[in-house]
Inverse folding.
């Protein structure tokens, strides 16, 4: 994992270096400075982790068991698949329907939560996200084919 994160750090450093990473006179650090230096710090931490593993300093570095048990790998795979589903459905039906379906699947069928919590979260989270982004921050989120359903809400919000 440390090797993978080190490679990601190097990639982020190269991408950040396309922007200005030095000091811009009368303005401050360039737009790539923070991503570059945070990636550099992450790379140093990864290198330290790799070095400690190579030397066998920690109990984890001497452990020969698999990195992830089968049950954990299954839940990670299901979670990753669920997020891909969320992204696809967001493109097709909009973020609010996608969140509704994602929460239904994840809370009820993966988390085995009861119906009261599942339904309250399925309704509450999309409403909270809508209020935060669309109303408070004025950042429209993708609604795809469901956008006409939001016209009455826009009329109330903007007094049209």
């Amino acid at each position: 994992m440390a090797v993978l994160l080190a490679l990601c750090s190097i990639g982020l450093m190269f991408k950040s270096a396309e922007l200005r990473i030095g000091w811009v006179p009368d303005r401050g650090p360039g737009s790539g400075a923070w991503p570059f230096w945070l990636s550099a710090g992450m790379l140093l931490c990864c290198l330290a982790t790799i070095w400690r593993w190579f030397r066998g300093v920690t109990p984890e570095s001497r452990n020969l068991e698999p990195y992830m048990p089968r049950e954990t790998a299954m839940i990670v795979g299901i979670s990753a698949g669920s997020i891909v589903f969320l992204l696809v459905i967001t493109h097709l039906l909009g973020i609010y329907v996608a969140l509704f379906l994602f929460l239904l699947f994840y809370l009820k069928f993966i988390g085995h939560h009861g119906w009261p919590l599942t339904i309250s979260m399925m309704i509450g989270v999309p409403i909270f996200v809508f209020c935060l982004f669309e109303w408070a921050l004025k950042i429209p989120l993708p609604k795809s084919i469901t956008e006409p359903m939001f016209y009455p809400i826009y009329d109330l919000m903007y007094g049209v």
User: Anything to note?
Assistant: The CA atoms of residues 4 and 93 lie 34 Å apart. The beta strands are 23-24, 28-29.
